[in-house]
Amino acid sequence: MIQSETLELLEWSRLCQHLATFAATKLGVAAAQDLQIPESQAETAELLAQTQEAYQLDNRPGGALAFEGIQDIGTSLQRAELQGLLSGEELLAIATTLAGARQLRRIIDNQPDVPTLKDLAAQLRTYPEIEQEIHRCIDDRAQVADRATPKLAGIRVQIRQLRDRIYQILQGILQRQSNAVQEQVITQRNARFVIPVKAPQKDAIPGIVHDSSASGATLYVEPHNTVNLNNQMRQFLRQEQVEEEAVRRALTEQVGAVKPDLDRLLVVVTTLDLATAKARYGFWLEANPPNFIELGNTELAANKGEIAEAENSENSENPKVQIPNLRSQITLRQLRHPLLVWQQQYEQGFPVVPIDLTIAPHIRVVAITGPNTGGKTVTLKTLGLAALMAKSGMFVPAREPVELPWFDNILADIGDEQSLQQSLSTFSGHIRRISRILAVLKKGGEEDSDLPIPHTSTTLRLRSGDTVSDTSTTLRLRSGDTVSDTSTTLRLRSGDTVSDTSTTLRLRSGDTVPDAQFPIPKSLVLLDEVGAGTDPSEGSALAIALLQYLAQNSLLTVATTHFGELKALKYQDSRFENASVEFDDSSMQPTYRLLWGIPGRSNALSIAKRLGLLPSIVAQAQTYVGGASVDVNQVIAGLEAQRRKQETKAKEATQLLQQTEKLHQEVSQKAAALKERERELKIAQEVAVNEAIGTAKSEIAQIIRRLQSGNQTAQKAQQATETLNQISQQHLPSRKAPAKPKPGFMPKVGDRIRIPSLGQTAEVLSGPDANEELSVRFGIMKMTVKLAEIESLDGEKPETKAQLAKIAAQAQATAKAKQAQSEVPKPNPEIAIRTANNTIDLRGARVSDAEIEVDRALSKAFEYGVLWIVHGKGTGQLRRGIHEFLDTHPQVSRYELASQKEGGGGVTIAFLK
C-alpha cells in the first residue's frame, strides 16, 4: 500500500504518461503507461542494457528500430484460440504485425554490439508462410480475394453475370416507363435490386413493393421480371458468404495453432518498443545511464545488551546487521526534475534549476533545511523519481557520471494527508504514513534478516561459510527452519543443513552453517517536514528518534525539516549530513540551489513579507525572535556568503583554465599549420630543384653519348661529372650547408619572453642564475623555468652553455673536415659514367684468365673510380669467381650487380677506393 502511495506522491503516473508519448505502438503506449518497477537488480540490469542498446541503435544511421505495421492483435489471438472466426481486418492486422516483427529482427541482426536486443530478436517467430497465405486470401480492403479458392472465384463470376442481366432488364423498364419513375437510378432494398416509382403510378410497373420514402411519394418496386433473378442472386450471395467464411476459418485455425509463439512475439515487440521509448525519452531529457553502487562487506553490529548471561540470553535483543558503507559516493550532478523539464518545454513553465547530490558512502541520513518555497520538497521528489527511473531501466536526467545504489524499496511521506472524513489531522496523517513505512522496513527485516543464533552467553550471526570454533555453541533457529529430528540434540558435520524450528543444535569445532545469509536493508526513505504539525519540542524529539532508527534500518533517508535540533545531529553522529536550499538575501527570494554541509535558515519572516503580510506584523514578529536564533542565522548567513564567494572564485578559475586551454589549442594549431606550410614549401623547392637537375642530367647524357661515339678522352667525361655534382651542391636543399642560427640573446629583468611549451608570454622577474634558471610571471602565476625553455618574442633562442660548447665542437669538426678534403683529393664517384675505358668484357673467358684481366683493368680504371665487368649470366661460375677475386682485391671498396638497363645479373660494377 505504501509503495503505491509513494508512486502517487512522486507523480510516477505523470512520468509514465510522458514516456508513453515516445512509444511507437499501442502495445508500447499501454506498457509505458502501466510501467512496472522491477523487483530485483538483475531485472533492472536487463532493462537498462535494453535501453542502452536501443539508444545506440537510435543514434546510428539506418539503425533505428521501426515499428510500422505492428498492431495490438492480442484480442484476435484469444478469439482464434477459442475457435472464433476472425474478420478480414483482424487477419490483415496479424499479417502486417508479422511483417513488422520480421523487419525488426532484420534491423537488429544487422547491427553489431547489441547482444541483449539480439537475444530478444532471436525469440521472434514471424511465420512468413502464414503472412503470405493471409495476403493471398485477403486483399488490401480486408475482403476475401477471388484468388482465395477456385470455387469462390466461380461464384463471383456468376454473381457478376447475373447482376448484369438484372441491370439490363431494369434499365429497359426505366427507359420505357420514364414517366412513372421518380428517378433514373437502380438501387437495393433488402439485398434485392429495385427502382424508385412514383406512388400514384405504381400500377404502371407491376411488382413487389419493398420500401417507401419518408414522405410516401416514392415506392421502391421490384418488377416481376426480376424476381426470379433476384432470388438466384440471393442464393449466390449466400454461397459466396459461406465460402468466404471457410477461407477465414482456415486462416483463423492456422493463427490459433501458433498462438503461444505469437503471444511471445507481442511480448518481445512490446519490450523492444518500450526500450526504444525509454531511450528516446532519455535523449530528449539529455539524460545519462546510471551506474549502480555496490555495498561493502557485511559486518555485525553490537546492540546494547547484546552480551548477556546465559539465563538472560533469550530475552536479549536480536543482533542487527550493520549496514555496510557504499563502495563509492552517490553522485547526481545537475539533476533535474523530469516533470518540471516537461512542464518547461510544453506548458511554458519556469526554467528548471538543477541540483547537485553528492552523498558520501557512510552517510545514512541527510537533513535538508531552508526557507519555505525554497525547493526542499522538489529535491525529495527529484531524488525519488531519479531512483525509480534508474530502477526501471531508464536514463537519469543528470550529468555523467550517474552513480547511485539500487534501492529495493522507495518509500515517501510527502505532503499533507489530513482528512475530515477519516478524522486525520496534519500530524496524525504524517504519523499514519510513517508507521506504514516502518512496517515495510520491519517486515523486510523479519522476512530476510532476523536469523538469531544465540550462544549460551553471546548472540551470534553467521554468514554462509562461517565456521563455529566453540564445541558447545547452541544455535536457536527461527520459525520456518526445519531439522531432521525434533527430539534429539544433533551434532552437524561440515556441510550439513538445518531444517526445523524446535531443535537445539550443537556444533562441533569446525562445523559450518550454510546459507545463513543476512540481506541488507536497501531502502530509500523520503520524509517531508518530519515531526511537523505538533508541539515543536515534542516534534523535534520524535524526529530525532525516527531519523536515528532509520539510520540503522534503511540505506538512505532524506528528510526536510525546520527544527534546529536536527541540524546538530551531524556533529553527534557521523552518519548524518546537513544540506540546505539557498536563499538570496538581496532579492529576498530562494535560488533553489542545494548547498551541502551548511544548515539552512527558514527565513519565515522574510518570506511572509514577500508574500504580502503587513510589514508592521513582520516587524513586531522580529522583536520576538530570540537572540540565540538571530546569532545562529547570522553565522549561517556568513557561511553561505563565504561559500558563494568561494564558488565564484572557483568558477572564475575554471573559466581562466578553459581560456588558457583554448589559447594553447589555438597556438598549437597555428604552429602545426606553420609546420605544414614549411613542409609544403620544402617539397615545392625539392620538385623545382629536381626538375633543374633532370635538365642537367639530360645535357650530361648527351655528353656521354658523344664520348661513347667519338674519340673523346676520359678526362672530359670526368669534368662533365664534376659539373653535374656542382649543380647538385648548388640547388639541392639536402646538400646545402645548414643555416646559421639567429644570434642568441640574454633575457634581462623586465623583458617580455615566450614559453613555447606553455604557449604563454611572460615577464622576466630575475635573470638567469648559475644553474641557468630564471623567474617569470604570467597572469597571477609565478614560476621558475630553464633558460633553454624560453625564447624572445621574435623567436631568438638564448645561448646556453651547452649550446655554446656544441657550436664550438661543430666548428672544430668542420675545420678538420675541410683540411682533410684539401689534403687528399679523390675522384668523385657520386655519379659514375660508363665509357669504353672503364668497361671490360669477359664473356666466354676462364676464371683464371678473367682474374688477370680484371686486375689489369682495375689498375687502368683508378682515375674513373669505377669499373664495369661484363661476365654474362650463363651458369654463374664466372660471376662467382670474379666476385671472390673482388672480395680480396685491395683496390676494391665494394661491388654490386648492375641495374637491368645496364645488364642486370650479367654485369658487375666494382667501386675503387
* Poorly predicted spans: 299-320, 418-423, 445-518, 627-631, 821-830
How far apart the termini lie comes to 104 Å
- Largest sheet data: 6 strands, mixed
Count the beta strands: 32
Shape: flat
Number of separate helices: 23
Task: Give the overall pLDDT as a whole number.
Answer: 78
Instruction: Write down the oligomeric state.
Output: single chain
Proportion of beta-strand residues: 15-25%
What is the radius of gyration computed over CA atoms, rounded to a whole number of angstroms? Answer: 49 Å
Provide the structure class: alpha+beta
Helix fraction?
40-55%
* Lateral arrangement of strands in the main beta sheet: 12-20-21-10-22-23
How would you explain this protein's 3D organization?
The protein is α+β, with helices and mostly antiparallel strands. The strands form 9 sheets. It has a 6-stranded mixed β-sheet with strand order 12-20-21-10-22-23, with helices on both faces. Strands 27-26-25-24-28 form a 5-stranded antiparallel β-sheet, with no helix packed on it. A 4-stranded antiparallel β-sheet has the order 1-2-4-3. The protein contains 23 helices and 32 strands. The protein is flat and about 140 Å long. Helix 2 runs antiparallel to helix 3 and helix 5 crosses helix 10 (227-257). 28% of the residues are buried.
Can you lay out the helices and strands and say which pair or pack?
Layout: H1 2-9, H2 12-20, H3 26-33, H4 41-58, H5 74-81, H6 88-109, H7 115-121, H8 128-137, H9 150-176, E1 187-189, E2 192-198, E3 207-212, E4 218-223, H10 227-257, H11 259-285, E5 290-293, E6 299-301, E7 320-322, E8 330-335, H12 338-346, E9 355-359, E10 365-369, H13 376-391, E11 399-405, E12 409-413, H14 426-448, E13 453-454, E14 459-460, E15 467-468, E16 473-475, E17 490-492, E18 505-507, E19 511-512, E20 523-527, H15 536-553, E21 556-560, H16 564-567, E22 576-584, E23 589-596, H17 604-610, H18 615-624, H19 627-709, H20 714-731, E24 752-755, E25 760-766, E26 773-778, E27 781-786, E28 791-792, H21 801-823, E29 839-841, H22 847-860, E30 866-870, H23 877-888, E31 892-897, E32 907-912
Parallel strand pairs: 5-11, 10-21, 10-22, 12-20, 17-18, 20-21, 29-30
Antiparallel strand pairs: 1-2, 2-4, 3-4, 6-7, 8-9, 8-11, 13-14, 15-19, 16-18, 22-23, 24-25, 24-28, 25-26, 26-27, 30-32, 31-32
